Amino acid sequence: FVDVKGNEVIPIAFDRSSLAFLNNFAGVAKNEKWAVINSSGKLLTPFKYDAIKTDKSGAIFARLNYKYALLNKRGKRITSFQFNTVSEFSEGLCSVEIQGKFGFINTSGRLVIPAVYNYALEFYQERALVRLDNKLLLIDKKGNIIKELQYDRISLSKDEVANVLRNDKYGRINRVTGEELIAPKYDMLSGIGNDF
Predict the structure, then answer these.
(1) What is the helix, strand, coil percentage profile of the chain, to 5?
(2) Which H helix or E strand runs over 97?
(3) Could you tell me the sign of the dihedral formed by the alpha carbons of 126, 88, 94, 143, in that order?
(4) CA 179 to CA 177: how far, in whole Å?
(5) 116 and 98 in contact (C-beta within 8 Å)?
(6) CB under 8 Å to 51, separation ≥6 — which residues?
(7) Which backbone phi and psi does 128 adopt, to 5 degrees?
(8) Measured between alpha carbons, how far is 189 from 151 in angstroms, rounded to an integer?
(9) What DSSP character marks residue 189?
(10) Running DSSP on this structure, what letter comes out for residue 58?
């Protein structure tokens, strides 16, 4: 690892590494096993994981046998290896998949919104979009339903606006309030991200 001036700050001692440090943590690998180091190069975990995932919030997830666990800042495991997938923490909560259903954990690893959803996206301005069976729902940080959205699909961006699809026609909504900004009547709308 090098600093912004190109000076080596952590010597080359690993087979692979994450692209950058996120909140002073990075994943590094030797012999196909991953570990966590801090920004001074100190090894926080042994080389025993299949993958390491860090995020901007400072969260560290380790994967072993296709399941993720949350680690603390010292590299100690604070949850069991129970998550099939994990998102990034957003507003103190992280979407996790447990046995094919999605819910949310807090930074302590406690499941605070039960894993009952078919899919869940990260929180944005105190709201998250989730899919429960065929229903697209807007929920708050306690899991309360704010609004049921009557759309077949939604494409998210990093801001408040999202494209929606209903009966093969596109429109736009405010993803925080669920308010319809443009009624679904267009064959195509461009400029917004991933389908959900």
Answers:
(1) 0, 50, 50
(2) strand 93-98
(3) positive
(4) 5
(5) no
(6) 27, 34, 62, 63
(7) -135, 150
(8) 15
(9) -
(10) S
> Angle 148-153-154 (CA atoms, 0-180°, nearest 5)?
85
Cα–Cα distance for residue pair 24/77, rounded to 1 Å? 18
CA dihedral sign, ordered 9, 15, 18, 23: negative
Rounded to two decimals, the pTM is 0.85
Cα separation, 132 vs 126, in Å, equals: 19
Residue 29 identity? A
Question: Could you report the per-residue pLDDT of 73-108, keeping only the tens digit for each?
Answer: 999 999 999 999 999 999 999 999 999 999 999 999
Q: Which has the higher per-residue pLDDT, 57 or 62? A: 62
Other Cβ atoms within 10 Å of 105 Cβ, number: 24
How far is the CA of 187 from the CAs of 43, 169, 173, 190, in angstroms? 53, 5, 16, 10
Name residues whose C-beta falls within 8 Å of residue 39's C-beta, 6 or more positions apart in sequence. 21, 24, 25, 26
Q: What is the pLDDT of residues 151-181, one digit of tens each?
A: 988 887 667 888 889 999 999 999 889 999 9
